[in-house]
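Exercise 7b. Backbone tokens:
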């Protein structure tokens, strides 16, 4: 998956983000030194736990190879990482104390039957509604009302993935109507969202490659996961986070053909990789993924190019997010999308691998 900086973003961290693979080394040095002055320049995701931290986090330091560095919390989250509750990476340094207030508000929303009003929440915390709104939005990127809506959406997805029927899951999550529940799944039908998915079996096969371990997962409909260049445990944890209620079964035999195709691609990237895919995403994400599959091996596009090709020139950021959510690296070649300045702009599986894939595809 890509971990891009979109080229239209304000770039106080440009110097760091533009250094290609140097990003990882510089970021690692700052993170290992717990250099809190680097807060805001990057965040560090730990692949074994799925948590990301800001520089200066006091938590125990995992091993170097378990880190992936991202230019911003948004990109880390798009790549599937959750914020550390100790260092609260989204908060400005001086606001770490205020993070406790934000957490209290989030907890109050989670515990309430009906979403509390801003005035209620403000009264509870001793802030004015104006200040509380600013504080909460600064920390979470959402208003309390939007946060409550997102929470309901997540509960709905969890209910569906436990195998509850649509009506039970919708009302259990606090929706007053099925229409509201449908909107909350982002246009995915609740039936598709359920495929998170109770009753679903994902078969997996693992191989060693020149990039390290590689894990392929597939449902009966097609390949739903390809991860690589991480320890086996981390790859399996990533798969389980994406499909929390599926039954995961190692099955080398069932996946032999798919696995062979991926390994052939890694040997001769110029040939490209065509696999039957079973992708779960919003309509827009699927359009982006289709557009990426149309980029021939050896060629590159910018995020803007992709947005333009979809007829949505303003959707550069949404394209970048869809790239970062790509569940099947290599098969949906998000590595072929680069920044407008020609920089690689990050890759979920490490910039060095992105560069190696691009160079191998361009050779021959
Ligand atoms: Zn942390």
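Sequence design result:
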């Amino acid at each position: 998956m890509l971990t891009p900086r979109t080229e239209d973003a304000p770039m106080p961290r440009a110097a760091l983000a533009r250094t290609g693979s140097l990003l990882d080394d510089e970021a690692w040095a700052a993170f290992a030194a717990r250099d809190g002055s680097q807060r805001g320049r990057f965040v560090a995701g730990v692949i074994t736990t799925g948590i990301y931290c800001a520089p200066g986090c006091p938590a125990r330091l995992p091993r170097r190879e378990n880190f992936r560095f991202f230019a911003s919390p948004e990109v880390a989250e798009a790549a599937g990482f959750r914020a550390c509750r100790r260092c609260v990476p989204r908060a400005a340094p001086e606001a770490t104390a205020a993070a406790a207030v934000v957490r209290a508000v989030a907890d109050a929303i989670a515990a309430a039957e009906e979403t509390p009003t801003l005035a209620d929440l403000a009264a509870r915390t001793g802030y004015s509604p104006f200040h509380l709104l600013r504080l909460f939005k600064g920390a979470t990127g959402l208003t309390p009302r939007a946060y409550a809506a997102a929470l309901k959406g997540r509960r709905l997805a969890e209910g569906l993935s436990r195998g509850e029927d649509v009506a039970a899951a919708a009302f259990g999550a606090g929706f007053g109507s099925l229409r509201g529940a449908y909107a909350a799944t982002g246009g995915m039908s609740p039936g598709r969202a359920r495929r998170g998915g109770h009753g679903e079996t994902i078969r997996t096969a693992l191989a060693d490659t020149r990039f390290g371990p590689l894990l392929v997962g597939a449902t009966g409909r097609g390949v739903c996961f390809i991860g690589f260049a991480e320890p086996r445990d981390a790859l399996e944890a990533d798969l389980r986070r994406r499909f929390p209620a599926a039954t995961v079964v190692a099955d080398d035999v069932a996946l032999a053909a798919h696995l062979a195709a991926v390994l052939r691609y890694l040997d001769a990237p110029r040939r490209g990789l065509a696999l039957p895919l079973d992708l779960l995403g919003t309509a827009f994400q699927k359009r982006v993924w289709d557009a990426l599959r149309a980029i021939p091996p050896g060629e590159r596009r910018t995020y803007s190019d992709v947005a333009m090709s979809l007829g949505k020139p303003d959707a550069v950021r949404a394209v970048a997010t869809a790239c970062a959510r790509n569940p099947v690296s290599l098969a949906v070649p998000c590595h072929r999308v680069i920044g407008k300045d020609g920089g690689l702009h990050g890759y979920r599986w490490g910039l060095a691998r992105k560069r190696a894939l691009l160079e191998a595809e361009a050779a021959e």
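Instructor comment: The longest strand covers residues 201-209. Residues 283-362 form a domain with the Arc Repressor Mutant, subunit A fold (CATH 1.10.10.10).
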